[in-house]
Design brief:
Helix content is 10%, strand content 33%. It has 142 residues and is mainly beta. The chain has a 5-stranded antiparallel β-sheet with strand order 2-1-6-7-8, with helices on one face. Strands 3-4-5 form a 3-stranded antiparallel β-sheet, covered by helices on one side. A hairpin with a 5-residue loop joins strand 6 and strand 7. The chain is globular and about 45 Å long. It starts with 6 loop residues before the first helix and ends in a 25-residue tail after the last strand.
Length: 142
């Protein structure tokens, strides 16, 4: 049985957990992923870190297919659109606690579904991508 990706559900859960703990939720985004609409002048090495706290954005939508909102960049309002598969990590600014996603390609239908790993710290660097045929792996975040 094919199931939908867990990534949007985990993003929403970590977003809520981070906010409930009075921390600032950030997402790291792969700017090369198709459909990503972010201010590229703020991206570094194909990545951008976005503050998605309710104080920083307007109209936040955490949908199963995308994340969208409006935010100020250099004093100018910008509409942001991020497919959930482009999200590399969701984490708290204050302590780095959160989740880093890795991509996994399945042989049965070729669709992407993340295996999830976390060392409790998110980073701005590209997470290691697993090779084809490997099983997803899940690590408990303490």
């Amino acid at each position: 049985m094919n199931m939908t990706t867990t990534r949007p559900y985990l993003i929403r859960a970590f977003y809520e957990w981070i906010a409930d703990n009075n921390c600032t939720p950030y997402i790291a985004v792969d700017t090369h992923y198709p459909g990503v609409e972010v201010p590229m002048e703020y991206a570094e090495n194909g990545r951008i870190i976005l503050n998605v706290s309710m104080n920083a954005v307007r109209g936040l939508q955490l949908d199963n297919a995308y994340i969208s909102f409006n935010a100020q960049f250099g004093g100018r309002g910008r509409d942001i659109y991020v497919p959930v598969q482009a999200v590399i990590a969701v984490y708290a600014k204050e302590n780095g606690k959160g989740m880093v996603f890795t991509e996994e390609e399945y042989e049965d239908d070729g669709s992407e579904d993340p295996s999830v790993s976390s060392n409790g710290q998110a980073s701005k660097t590209n997470p290691q991508k697993s090779g084809k045929g490997k099983k997803p792996n899940l690590t408990l975040v303490k």
